Amino acid sequence: MTRNYELFPDDDNGDVLWQMHEDGDDLTELHDIEYSIAFSSQEQAERCALYLLHEEQKITLFADEEVEPAEWIVTIFVNMEPEYADVVDLEEWFTKIAEKFGGEYDGWGCMTYVYDVEDEEDD
Predict the structure, then answer these.
(1) Among residues 100, 123, 88, which one has the least CA distance to residue 11?
(2) What are the residue boundaries of the structural domains of the chain, listed by start?
(3) What is the mean pLDDT of residues 53-79?
(4) pTM of the model as a whole
């Protein structure tokens, strides 16, 4: 299949969405997409988390101690159809929020669910 650059522009977001599509993921279905913001301090992360809760966002907050120095990560869970324009809009919004609270927007991802229907073979 030839890539439609209107649906899947030639950038990181378009590449990820195109790969999901190529892997058989149905992008017209709702997905739980995770957007992440990283902070160097717990206080900054907690202030951002509280702000996002007031914005009615579903979030988690945890300390990533596997990196030095430890980072605090706020993950925002958005149930949505992964359309390019919506992903970009949310990235821009979360980038502004990250900057407002002294953090850094750290990208998005989601689990893909691809189900293969195998033909039953007669024994």
Answers:
(1) 88
(2) 54-112
(3) 95
(4) 0.86
